[in-house]
Amino acid sequence: MSRSPTLLHRGFDADDPEGSRQRSWFDRLHIAFSKCAAFLAAGATSWIFVIMVMICADVIGLKVFSRPLYGVVELTAASIVAVVFAQLPHTLFEKRMTRADFLISSLEIRTPSFAAALNLIFCLCGLGIFGALAWSLIAPTTSALLNGEFIGTQGIFTMQVWPIKAIILLGVVMTAIEFAFQSIHQLRDITAGHAWKSVVLVSVVLVAIILIVSVSPDPDRVWIGTVAVGALVAMILLGMHIPVAMMLVALVGVWLIRDNPTLAVKTIRSAATGSINKFDFGVVPLFVLMGLLVDASDLGRDAYRVMAALLRRLYGGLAIATVAANTVFAAITGISIASAAVFTRVAVPQMTEHHYSPGFAAGTVAGSSVLGMMIPPSLLLIIYGFVTETSVGSLFIAATLPGLLLATSFCLFIYLAARFAPERVGCPAIADDISPVSVREIFKALFPILFLVFIVMGGIYGGVFTPTQAGAVGAAATLVVAILRRSLTWRSLWRVMKETGVISVTILMLIVAASAFTKMLVMSGIPNAIVSMFLEQGVSFWGFMLGYFAVIILLGMFLDSTSIILIVVPLVIGIVPDITHGVVIGDPMIWFGIVTIIAVEIGLLTPPFGITVYVVKATLDRDDITLVDIFKGAMPYVGIMAIVMIILTAFPTISLFWLQP
């Protein structure tokens, strides 16, 4: 995930006591506010842990004693929204709100005055969006308090909802205040740098765009929606926070389409409070928690050690071991960034010591880490399932064979390259110096991983758990494994919890914003217009798919994977059943999800964004391995992924094999 604008760049740091005397009263006020936001975020983060415990208790009560824990589903669904907005102001302060900052970062170096002007406009937009959202939430919150609104069923479980709505309102208000603080910081920079001309220029351009759309002679809905989509892409590329850009486009788009500002604000409010208030969305923080606990437990390190020992005599054995360990690790994490960080630390040094070229070693880690987004459980598959209302369990089943095909293809490429063109990978040596491992060591290293895979995936495939329940049980089981391995301290556990909260809020906030954006798209009629256009033009299956892949991969060069799915998929899902008729035997949306994820994965490795490559580089912290080296090392894997994507497109049965009646 990319991050929001630099916040503390004016010379003070919240954790720097020596600089306290140089801070202005405004700086001290901002730091005090940030501590309040951190306290609220800590409470929300802790609640994720409570949700895990409650769901596990509910599963045990239902499966063992045939007595469920009443209220767990309702409480989880209602509190997920509060968890997101309670953590949002602190996430914004910590520069973790999702943002494509490659362009704005360059502008901050080359033309800081123009960058400051853009940042000011972006922060003011955030202030306006969350200010309007806060105003619209006051009435429902007050009504819930006065009327005693509750969730649950009387006589079984009931709970008043006003505390949850009050936390949501508080989080939204504090997010608006944080945007106000950031706006003032940017304003101080502009004042110091006399950059008012840039502010006026940016403001005039934005106002001109809105006026052109609004005063066009009888603009139809499709025209407004088309301009809105173009404006969204432009704002995101310029560096506006992606959730803010989506919500702003939705607000202005609905306003212009319906000529009703009140309805536009209600659309934003409906998305904020009604898009993720479902039990199913608990799967996001729970699987994130599980993945980070796996990382903290050093299970990835053990998997690599065993694979390296078993494959040490094979051509390209250490690189193949990296892919194999990543495959196993992916089966219990679902987060490619976690895989990239883990195997960069353990695999790259080992590979370079055995004469693999540094770029190929780092590129292999980056390339194979994307398996975490294909092999179930996968967060991207979960997000795709939410967007298309497709069964997450079916997506997991469908992704298994393509994921293994992708991993096998990686291994085959490495072996052939090391065997017949060793100079391409740095003339790797056979790793005879790596000590063999005994059966007992293999069992000790791999049993915890296989145990977790059996619990999570076995529970889902066997119909024992829903994906959300599997996430809770898997996270709890991983916590037990980490404790038994003595690899988790209280400090590291709290670090995992905080990171779980940050990653979860960035993903779920994107889903909230995408919900508002999708509502605007539906009102504009763009999806129906796209369907009609393709049907009237008689576009072939391959013509549509190749164009779709090109758009996904192009956006992947600039945007993160979650944003791509949330922006693009709603535009095209209406055409998928018609364009795949007679080609895909089975549920076309499940197959479409698999090939979409592979296309998105390619974007994780392509410049200039290539988030996985940046994670590998940041984790390495080595001057002799540049970003260019890693991108070059990852390019063969990009090619392999493209080939597998085409194969899965040509033969949809591979994805739907396990789902055939």
Keywords, separated by commas or semicolons:
661 residues; single chain; mainly alpha
In words, what does this structure look like?
- There is one protein chain.
- By secondary structure, this protein is mostly helical.
- The chain has helices spanning 25-64, 72-93, 102-110, 112-147, 162-193, 196-215, 221-238, 242-258, 261-274, 283-296, 299-310, 317-330, 336-346, 348-353, 358-369, 379-388, 392-420, 439-461, 467-484, 490-524, 526-537, 541-556, 561-572, 576-579, 588-603, 611-620, 627-650, 653-656, and strands at residues 150-153, 157-160.
- It has a two-stranded antiparallel sheet.
- A hairpin with a 3-residue loop joins strand 1 and strand 2.
- Helix 18 (439-461) runs antiparallel to helix 19.
Put simply, the count of helices is 28
The geometry reads as globular
Global Rg = 25 Å
Low-confidence stretches: 1-15, 17-21
What is the secondary structure topology, with strand pairs?
Blueprint lengths: L24 H40 L7 H22 L8 H9 L1 H36 L2 E4 L3 E4 L1 H32 L2 H20 L5 H18 L3 H17 L2 H14 L8 H14 L2 H12 L6 H14 L5 H11 L1 H6 L4 H12 L9 H10 L3 H29 L18 H23 L5 H18 L5 H35 L1 H12 L3 H16 L4 H12 L3 H4 L8 H16 L7 H10 L6 H24 L2 H4 L5
Antiparallel strand pairs: 1-2
Helix pairs in contact: 1-2, 1-5, 1-19, 1-20, 2-5, 2-20, 3-4, 4-5, 4-6, 4-8, 4-9, 7-8, 7-20, 8-9, 8-20, 9-20, 10-19, 10-20, 11-12, 11-18, 12-15, 12-17, 13-15, 13-26, 15-26, 15-27, 16-23, 16-25, 17-25, 17-27, 18-19, 20-23, 22-25, 25-27, 26-27
